[in-house]
Amino acid sequence: MFISDRQWKWWLPLALAIPFFCSCRTYNGAVAPYYEAVSQGRFEEASTQLDKARFFRYNRNKLLFNMEKGKTAFLQGRYHESNLYFNAADSILSGRSRSRVLDQTLGLVVNPAMQIYQGEDFERLLIHYYKSVNYLQLHQLEDAEVEARRISLGNYALNDRKKNNDKKYSNDAFSLIVQGIVYESAGDVNNAFIAYRNAADIFLKSPDRRYYGVDMPAQLQVDLLRTADQLGFQQEVQYYEQQFGRVHQRSADNDGGSVLVIWENGLAPVKAESNFFFTLTERGPGNFVFTDPNTQIFIPFDFNLFPRDSCDRLRRHLEAFRVAFPSYIEQPLYYTTADVQRDSTFSTTLEKVEDVNQLAFRTLQERFLKEMGLALTRLAIKKLAEYEIRKNDEVAGELFNLFALLTEKADTRNWQSLPHSIYYSRIPLKRGDNKITLTLKGKGNTQKVEFNVIGNGRLQTLHYASLQKS
Predict the structure, then answer these.
(1) What's the rounded Cα separation, in Å, for the pair 103 and 115?
(2) Is the residue at 213 inside a domain?
(3) How far are the Cα atoms of 100, 151, 223, 386 from residue 264, in angstroms, in the given order?
(4) Does 362 map to a domain?
(5) Residues 166-199: tens digit of each pLDDT
(6) Is residue 439 situated within a structural domain?
(7) Are the C-beta atoms of residues 467 and 39 closer than 8 Å to each other?
(8) What is the mean pLDDT of the chain?
(9) Secondary structure of the chain in the HEC alphabet?
(10) Total domain count, the chain
(11) pTM to 2 decimals?
(12) Range of the domain at 265
């Protein structure tokens, strides 16, 4: 094929742009050394690998960089450093480093992986969880309370985005439980009660009292009844006793206080790329839909988005085509349950309080039609541009078509050092030294981890992460 001087104006920019916009690697593949290190507990190495990764040099990936760095610092017990990164992540979420119009244009014209990463809804709320635990570990209770109030703002924003739709992820029970823990740690029993009550009400409104893979924790029920009783709210005590099917029993005064044991188990799912193939069909006069080969998916397409003369061209030229879309791959668990024991006098099983794995899969499913509609619009725009180019230069049109094919890519970014699930339980302490033993159990695998906690009459937090994959 001979390329004229005039056609070089298409060849050269496209040749230069293709390596920038196109890559077969997913986010997980781009940061593989980091991911391997963090999954094997080599957190110092994982932090170093983050600094080396070229992927994070682009401003669009800075949120991910700060979330991953904040988590690795948290895992190393560097709580102040961890919050520096999480504060930077908060700043990115509250600001805009490029105009919203430009960002959305890049997503429509090229692919969504070129947009500034804004995080999944549950990822944003989990930033507050880590910051709250960091402040508690640093004994900065006032800062922890400020973060607790920001949890309310995060839930309000989530509810607004989902238009108060109880059938979608419009509230986050776990973040409200964390809020209650923070308030109770700071001695604010009234606000702790409100947070626990709000969390419990989310479960009570859900089918089978199960919210995104989590049954209502018995610990939450105990905490709600206890704080209501402490405040003298006997009407609320009686109401929730009836709702929970349990009777509140006042525990004996415990001069050592208690410790909340938090266990982060496994790793969150990673995003991969899936390909969907669609054709444009007419279902009644002027009623066009995109449908897959098995006719199981129907997505309406509004030709009113385009000029009338463009509609006819789209109908003629949009034949079978490919759409890249993200999908999750679950990471298998090495451990499945955990028990915690204090000395030889008290033991209990940790309860699941957050299922990040379920949240990831289900929230992606909830927004499938909306995001697939955007992907189809993106392809339509590219097809119209190709048609206009072909009218003047067939070779240039072919080149643009090649560019469109190579840039059709799913956004596979997600916060991959998050746990698969989070478990917790509250352990009473005696005054002075307490030996806490955490026993992790899997298929033929058992690990014991010991801690010494000094009972001081207050509520304390203790966290442990086992990120291995089976």
Answers:
(1) 5
(2) no
(3) 35, 20, 21, 49
(4) yes
(5) 788 889 999 999 999 999 999 999 999 999 999 9
(6) yes
(7) yes
(8) 86
(9) CCCCCCCHHHHHHHHHHHHHHCCCCCHHHHCHHHHHHHHCCCHHHHHHHHHHCHHHHCHHHHHHHHHHHHHHHHHCCCHHHHHHHHHHHHHHHHCCCCCHHHHHHHHHHCCHHHCCCCCCHHHHHHHHHHHHHHHHHCCCHHHHHHHHHHHHHHHHHHHHHCCCCCCCCCCCHHHHHHHHHHHHHCCCHHHHHHHHHHHHHHHHHCHHHEECCEECCHHHHHHHHHHHHHCCCHHHHHHHHHHHCCCCCCCCCCCCCEEEEEEEECCCCEEEEEEEEEEEEECCCCCEEEECCCCCCEEECCHHHCCHHHHHHHHHHCCCEEEEEEEEECCCECCCEEEEEECCCEEEECEEEEEHHHHHHHHHHHCHHHHHHHHHHHHHHHHHHHHHHHHHCHHHHHHHHHHHHHHCCCCCCCCCCCCCEEEEEEEECCCEEEEEEEEEECCCCEEEEEEEEEECCCEEEEEEEECCEC
(10) 1
(11) 0.89
(12) 257-470
Identify the residue whose tokens are 């349990």. 246
Residue 455 lies in a domain: yes
Name the amino acid, one letter, at 417.
S
